[in-house]
Amino acid sequence: MNSREIEIEDLLPLPEATFHILMAVAEDDRHGYAIIQEVATRTDGMLKLSPGTLYRSIQRMLEQGLIQETAERPAPELDDERRRYYRITSFGRAVARAEARRLAQLVKLARESGFVPGRA
Amino acid sequence: MYRLLLLLYPSSFRAEYGEEMCRDFARNRQQASGFFALAVLWMVAIGDAIRNGLAAHCDLLRQDVRYASRTIRRAPGFAATVVLVAALGIGATTAVFTVADYVLVRPLPYLHSERLVRMWEARPGYLQMELSPPNYLDWKAMATSFEVMAAYAPWSTSMVGQGEPIQVEGANLAADLLPMLGIAPAMGRWFTVDDERSAGVVILGYGLWASRFGGRMDAIGEKILLDGDAHTIIGVMPPEFSFPQRRAQVWRPLRFRPADLTNRNNNYLGAIARRKPGVSLEQARQEMRLISARLATQYPKENSALSATVANLRDQVSLQSRTLVMALLAASVCVLLIACTNLANLLLVRALSRQKELAVRASLGAGRERLVRQLLTESLLLAGLGGALGIAGANAALPLLVRLVPTSLPMANPSIDGRVLLFAVAITVATGLAFGVLPSLRACRDGASGLREGSRSGVGGRKERLRSALVVAEVSLSVALLITSGLLIRALWRLHAIDPGFQQAGVLTLRTALPTPKYEKVVQREAFYQRVLSGVRALPGVQSAGFTSFLPIVMRGGVWAVDIAGQNQQRSENHTASMRFITPGYFPAMGIPLKLGRGVEESDGATALPVAVVSESFVQRYWPGQNAIGRSFQIASGTRTIVGVAGNVRVRGLEAPSEPQVYLSYRQMRDGNLVWYAPKDLAVRTTVNPTSLTAAIRAIIHDADPQQPISDVQTLTEIVESNTASRRVQARVLGAFAAIAFLLAAVGIHGLLSFSVSQRTQEIGVRMALGAKSGQILSLILGESSRLAIAGAVLGAGLGYGAGRAMQSLLAGLDPEDAATFATAMALAVTMTLAGSLIPTVRAVRVDPAVAVRAE
Fold first, then answer.
1. Closest residue of chain B to A83, computed from CA coordinates
2. ipTM of this complex > 0.90?
């Protein structure tokens, strides 16, 4: 709606659910239920988004311009016509990248403090 | 099932995602196998809906508040007006309803207060007389309708030993009185029946305990001197307790002397009783009638005409206070109505100007519910701000309003009543919704027409008529308020024009209540008066000084029957006079003129001829047109010979008729007799500012008797003004309401006319292009507003007439149809309306036809 007024930095740090949703739609357009499943698969079942959290996040992300509803449909045999599909926007990608950088920076700092085991 | 849970979400959210959420849930349910898994699924779903539903609501609220504050910032003038108008309505109503609640509605803060009754002796012409001790004891013994009956007698005493001597108000209470009221002491204990027999215990008020005993817990058991007698403190009452009047701060057991128990003409007891459960007021009255009849046959001499008055304690608010509070209620409702009308007007206009904005948003896909929510948030925000301001105002006004409450009501510190506040806020919000949200909604329903180029829906026709009706309502309500407050002010002027019978300027008064037994003998008192008076008269700037039993207005009773030998008197006729013992110097000090003969002099001693100075009204009643000097009469079981005639004094204040006055010599009293009438009020006439002498006079009294308390230091002017103080407060409060109403109406009318003129710019332009002169345009618009003003003024005059009649008891005999008041109020209203329409009219006349026609 008013995504143009929003700067990337205003959105950081991203809520955990938002970041996961962005990652879930990074390659393929997905509908809501598929996002829940995708997030669960990626996190080995550690994170199961509740429908309330999911759709509230989606609503906000649409407003912020991180994702958009898409008119294109996947192959007809896979399609559930009543569902809405969401696609990441370029702004969404930029925000996700910025968040990843922020997290990487954070991990680097943690490693210097000896909090992270492994390659030092 | 799951759909029900979705109701927790805002409906816009539900409309958007509800379907999908249902389907997701259905799929999860298919996968869940077994009861346990299903239960977990549901638990999670419920938790999710509650958490996220709430969060979604908060999201929206944040959005709406942001949007609303942006709108408010864009039109700060509009927002300020709305807030102010709402604040005035809410504040006025809240303050007045709070007071009304105490005076008229709230049960008294006593145990089973709904069954408490007040009792009086009743004689023909006097329905509410205090009880005499023997009658009280007989009633108490004979009556079966009551659980308890308890008497009390007001008491005023000097307290010595705790700092400066002071005079304290209080009461003597029968032992069962405090348990009957059900108010336990904050510390210590109640009186017992044993206390009634043995002298010397006292319960203190919280305020006195805190100020004079530093709030020490160990004050209980301490001994203090009251009127020279030692009293042991046995308790401290809670702060909110005040009985029988608000200033009372000491209580001791009620005790009767043997002489009290036989004298049925000595009426000084107040009595309160509690009806047994199931006994109605009427049944109690019936029983008291029977008892009175029995006592009448037993004591035919004193009790022949005697019966009893029984009334609910709650109803002991005088008619005047009741009328006053009702008048205030009506006034505050008027203000609230005007405020609502004004809000309605403001919001209607606003809604029209926002039609396009809303239509745009609706056509962009904003749901109806979403828009309503938005407008609701905005109205609530404005009403909330108005409410907060209103509460602050009401809080500030309460102390003034409390002065209107009769002091007999136990009302410590009134606080704003939550229910009342809620009521006022609800009305304001309802107004906001009805006139702000609904029109906007209608606008967005026919969004298409709202967007049509040059659309002028809403001007002319129904809405115009509605706005005109609102203006007429505002004008008429404010005229009604102007009339009623005008009547009160006129009544006040009338009272101020009344001559009290003495010269009030430049006189200082104070009270030295001489305690007994120290001053029981006349010679003891004489010595005190001599020392004080000679000292005071020697002060520079003092013209004269004298003592009296009671100053006029301060004390209105002290009335005795008068007997005149040779005049056959009918019992039914009123042959009474207010009796005062005075020292020489009292008449000149008060500025009461001597019309004939002489005043009271030092030579009128105990062994000389008992003399009296009487008022002209006294002579008028018994020897009309004759010379009364040298004639004699009987009063207070003594014969007195008239040596002088003085001017009439308004002993009972400016409003009520007073009995004739009789002044006797302070030296011609008998020891121990009529001690209550011993002169105690000092009046000092000065040529300087009277209060500048206070310290010097205090020092003189302290020299004469270091233990003598001094109280009620005030100027005579203050006494006279206190007589009309409640009226001044009344006039001020109602005047304030009228001013508020007037202001609100002015704002409303100006707003309405500005709007309708601006909406008619095009029409005016066309008219002018077709050759209309600006004079014609002027009269067109002014004519319209004066029609509204006159309609409102006429309606308001009708309302004001009804209100004036209803509050006649407050008008001190002023005719409620007072033409001057009506004319002034109506003229003011018409002037206000015309003035309010002047600016928009001038703007209309200046319209350039070419611009106006091109504007759309």
1. B20
2. no
